[in-house]
Design a protein that fits this description.
Blueprint lengths: L2 H26 L5 E7 H6 L11 E6 L3 E7 L4 E7 H5 L5 H30 L9 H28 L2 H6 L8 E8 L1 H22 L10 H13 L1
Protein name: CLRN1 protein
InterPro entries: Clarin
Subcellular location: Membrane
Length: about 230
């Protein structure tokens, strides 16, 4: 492939990596990771609410990695409540998983920025071997993609397996019990998915530029090496 086309491909990869770093950083600070509907189970059972009466006992909840908001309704109107995970909810949630999600998001941002820098270095500079060349580009893209996948897996398990929404809804509730009526992942969660796919796309761009995958050797090079060994 001509050098000019390789520069264009590397520039595209660098811009995509930088955009993913910015998108991930923006997603971390929002509370749009999960949106859900919570039902005041205790209040609904007390009045034996059915049909349209249940609307008076249905509230909303949305949260991110650091803070969120819930609106509880127990028949007396909505009461909003702002909360933060640190340090309020650490005793109520699986803290190790939650901290791991934040840690992998940080690593994702760092490696996305590093990858963007090396993409641009290979486009406009004189690439070195190993970490500065195509092997390094594969490495940064692979690590960033892996971190994005780990973030989605860990956060999904925290929400679905450990029932994070119910634990947040019942935080500091003495007499009322809330149950998750429905929940869905919101925009910030899907930004992480898009970023992971973009980093996977970057590995295909590197391959499209004409570079072999790391640790792969062609049969011709092996044949030439063997012939050279026989000469000595």
């Amino acid at each position: 492939m001509p050098a000019q086309q390789k520069k264009i491909i590397f520039c595209i990869g660098g811009v995509l990596s930088f955009a993913c770093a910015l998108g991930t950083a923006a997603a971390i600070g929002t509370q749009r990771w999960v949106k859900g509907v919570i039902l005041c189970k205790t209040g609904a059972l007390l009045v034996n609410a059915t049909g349209q009466e249940l609307e008076k006992f249905i509230g909303e909840i949305q949260y991110g990695l650091f803070h969120g908001e819930r609106v509880r309704q127990c028949g007396l109107g909505g009461r909003p409540f702002q909360f933060s995970f640190f340090p309020d909810l650490l005793k109520s949630i699986p803290a190790s998983i939650h901290v791991s999600v934040i840690l992998f998001c940080t690593v994702l941002i760092i490696f996305a920025l590093v990858g963007a820098g090396f993409f641009m270095f290979n486009a406009f500079g004189s690439p070195y071997e190993t970490l500065h060349g195509p092997v390094g580009l594969y490495l940064w893209s692979f690590v960033a993609c892996s971190c994005g996948c780990l973030v989605m897996i860990l956060f999904s398990s925290e929400v679905k397996i450990h029932h994070l929404s119910e634990k947040i809804a019942n935080f500091n509730e003495g007499s009322f019990t809330f149950k998750t009526h429905s929940e869905q992942f919101a925009n910030s969660f899907w930004i992480i998915l898009v970023c992971s796919l973009v980093h996977f796309l970057n590995t295909l761009l590197i391959r499209f530029a004409g570079f072999e995958f790391p640790f792969s050797k062609s049969k011709d090079s092996g044949t030439i090496t063997g012939a050279a060994d026989l000469m000595y």
